[in-house]
Fold this protein.
Amino acid sequence: MANVWQQFQSLLETESTQIATVITTDGQRSTVELLSGDTVRVTGTGAPGSRVYIKGMQITEQAPNLPSYNMILF
């Protein structure tokens, strides 16, 4: 009998999707700023200032440019 836990894990995605803002682009790669404030260089392009979805260090698609808030709970 197959291991049920391994079957379940195979259904889950291993990489998370993040939202980032494009800072600069050179036509093939872009520098983006994550919501955490970190900047990373990823594959893909977008207009500077636009929001994009990042998965596996690659831009997958445009994200809606909605306001975001960081809530600090005490």
